Amino acid sequence: MSGARQGRALLGCIADDFTGATDLANMLVRGGMRTMQTIGVPETPEVAAAARGADALVVALKSRTIEAADAISQSLAALEWLRAQGCRQFFFKYCSTFDSTDAGNIGPVAEALLDALADLPGSGLTIACPAFPENGRTVYRGHLFVADALLNESGMENHPLTPMRDPNLVRVLERQTQGKVGLVRYDAVARGSDAVRAALAAEQAKGVRIAIADAISDSDLHTLGAACMDRALVTGGSGLALGLPENFRRAGLLSATCDAGALPCVDGGAAVLAGSASKATLAQVGAWRASRPAFRIDPLALARGEPLVERAVAFAREHSEASTPEPVLVYATATPDEVRAAQHELGVERAGALVEAALASIARALHALGVRRFVVAGGETSGAVVQALGVRALRIGAQIDPGVPATVSIGPTPLALALKSGNFGSVDFFEKALRQLGGAAS
Q: What is the pTM of this model?
């Protein structure tokens, strides 16, 4: 990476869900990169024009749980757009709990991206590292831990769409890929970036195309980032992005003084929408309900045709027009037993689709009532809501909680948005996010 900067993006990123994209963008902003996130592959010249002011571009897809062939197709389309914007290096971002199945989609997409970048130096091998120590995700000897528990003992073994029952990421990835999967062990990482480069070269000489990399601290992620300076493609969780901005800075391509997280102020009403069934979101919903108004969306009631969307909107209007107006929470978050019961009666796909469609419709109606600040919990829910609101691109601001930044949409009527992965955020995240979205300075 060398040569003078000419107003074009440096790093092009592809994320397999919406909240994961903002999580990644948050890391890049923290590293001093002005970052823009698009919702899907941009189709208008206006978005490409806005992209010219960014150091990093993140294309948010909704490809984590779709058919592998479709995920590959969407990811390659995103890569083509990013290359057209002049990006010099590429990042494929997935969840820090490596959410996938034996059919994909992490391995198939990573291999397809490597193939598509075969014309670039450094495209023979990429690393895979979902570690995010700040949120308790670490990788040691190729095994993924969530806090002190192995992945398969962390609650992820019960995930309704991507149950993770094997903590050995080498084995997980081998079941998804055609090529060889290797491992860069912690003893190499602990010796620094030169040792990692040597380990990667040794793995590539053995025919490995994707190497799992150990990391147990932020320092390790910086080491891995430095070691990947000349790799065409890097894959991992958002934590791995900690080590990438400095590569561009060392090459004289990135300013050391840019206020990367500055956002315009957005006025208007506020609301919280939650569709995730994760432990963290369950706790956040419980904390809100203890003192704030909330309305529950039951997928079984939706299936019976009950007008829950209309009732939720009326509930929100009532509280917005009260003598002391306050935002409401509309949530479909439920306990694992409640989720299983709904899925048993409706099927996994239908239960999820009913909830997403309902929350998307509610978001549109709330927007019509003047809501301009939205906090959204859950990757699938966030994707449905931003699509319903017609959001095509976001400016990324300062961090609210690890992995979750404030954002403002690009367009004639800006919206302030906090898009949260289900497992992220402190128990008081909803309140904290609304305060920050309301206080963003221009």
A: 0.82
